[in-house]
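Chapter summary example.
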Amino acid sequence: MIEQDGTSAGDYVDAGGLRTYYEVRGTGEPVVMLHGGFCTIETWEAQTPALAERYRVVLPERRAHGRTPDVEGSITFANMAQDTIAFMDAIGISRAHLVGWSDGGNVGLEVALVRPDLVGKLVMMSAAANLDGTTPEVRAQLEGLAADTLPPMLREPYEALSPDGPEHLEIVVGKLKQLWGTEPTHELADLERVSVPTLVMVADDDVVTVDHAAAIARAIPDSQLAVVPGTDHALLFEKPELVNRLLLDFLADEQAPKLFSERQGE
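The structure predicted for these 266 residues follows.
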């Protein structure tokens, strides 16, 4: 149930056959927050209060994550994007800003490519367009990924919250290992089709290289690039105030004028 102030204690909705858990904070223009792999909506605890002062912040959990059950078949960015589209339709959102971190950034990108009419602005945080955009170290770590090697911050919430039970984690690990070993697969030229304003955000010590993030920003016609200094893939936890400021500045209706560019055009 959503209260008059826009706050929801948590609810489920049937989104195209997927029993999807979500919460809502604040009122106003909707912003859908898309968490990372193995994560829950608690990932956004440092961002939600700041965004909820201006926006209706909608926090869904995707298939096999948090309180939303797994379903038969593989996990792909395409089917998670379709789940997101179905979720927005199920709760009556015809258009929203999408803010995605890690896997959530890839899901947001897929939605923007196939249903740009649903997206106001897109934020891709720490998300690569293709496998070449990630560091060699993270690709090597993928080889040893297993349920018993997951850090407690990822394993414990799954075991506590998943309706599939803690024993199902091994299956989810296998599905995500397959996903991360084969996707994403976009050529940079594909990103020229992104027609919505996009913020590409990356840490300076991320799993995605700064060069790749810059290439994504150059490929998307209406884009901005933000490199958060002194952080790694956990930038939204490590420097939340800076991340929040970047998000709020980008999502605002009025953007700061580019004074030097304007003077050159005189």
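To summarize the output: The radius of gyration is 18 Å.
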